[in-house]
Write a structure and sequence with these properties.
Number of helices of chain B: 0
Structural class of chain B: mainly beta
Order of helices and strands of chain B: EEEEEEEEEEE
Helix content of chain B: under 10%
Shape of chain A: globular
Oligomer: heterodimer
Structural class of chain A: mainly beta
Shape of chain B: globular
Largest sheet of chain A: 7 strands, mixed
Strand content of chain B: over 45%
Number of helices of chain A: 0
Strand content of chain A: over 45%
Largest interface: A-B, 23 and 19 residues
Helix content of chain A: under 10%
Chain lengths: 113, 112
């Protein structure tokens, strides 16, 4: 079975540009999570969805960040406009119904110049 | 509210030595506990999980952890370290399906 798929794996952009990160969860999973990892702040939960509905977005740092899940097999995390302090590794993870464990994707390394 | 504290941001052991990574949790209700491993430039991979069955949990790659309610601990151990164990390890807690609370991580170095 394919795991969680994220694209792109690396993204380099300039300050002020829009960035879109993509995630395909494991088929049949009904929870989807977006995390950000930095040296300074560690692993932070940004937002999570259940059955395509956002449940908790309290970790989204500011209005420049938005996330959508239009269907069970696809989610996006958008940053507009991007800033150098957004540079981090962004992970997507998914969980099965009634399951606690999360399965992580390989991450997207974002660099904002 | 739940929380997790990992004692020691960096642990160094010699190859063949015991590995002990410490995790203490706080939870007002019985928790579910997890250890994840992250190798360089990769995502997090589940090592093992405690879900209120046996208190001694065995995971992949020879790791195990023991749930001690009286000490609110869930320490990760491995009898003999291997070079390939060098990675960052995260402890996590939840009390329901959904959100996990992660610790700050412990980087394990293994010396030859």
């Amino acid at each position: 079975d394919a795991g969680v798929i994220q694209s792109p794996r690396h993204e380099v952009t300039e300050m002020g540009q829009e960035v879109t990160l993509r995630c395909k969860p494991i088929s049949g999973h009904d929870y989807l999570f977006w995390y950000r990892q930095t040296m300074m702040r560690g692993l932070e939960l940004l937002i999570y969805f259940n059955n395509n509905v956002p449940i908790d977005d309290s970790g989204m740092p500011e209005d420049r960040f938005s996330a959508k899940m239009p269907n069970a097999s696809f989610s996006t995390l958008k940053i507009q406009p991007s800033e150098p302090r957004d540079s981090a590794v962004y992970f997507c993870a998914s969980s099965p119904p009634r399951g606690n464990e999360q399965f992580f994707g390989p991450g997207t390394r974002l660099t904002v110049l | 509210a739940q929380s997790v504290t990992q004692l020691g941001s960096h642990v160094s052991v010699s190859e063949g030595a015991l590995v002990l990574l410490r995790c203490n949790y706080s939870s007002s209700v019985p928790p579910y506990l997890f250890w994840y491993v992250q190798y360089p430039n990769q995502g997090l991979q589940l090592l093992l999980k405690y879900t209120s069955a046996a208190t001694l949990v065995k995971g992949i790659n020879g790791f195990e952890a023991e749930f001690k309610k009286s000490e609110t601990s869930f320490h990760l151990t491995k009898p003999s370290a291997h070079m390939s164990d060098a990675a960052e390890y995260f402890c996590a807690v939840t009390t329901r399906v959904g959100k996990l609370i992660f610790g700050q991580g412990t980087e394990l170095s293994v010396k030859p």
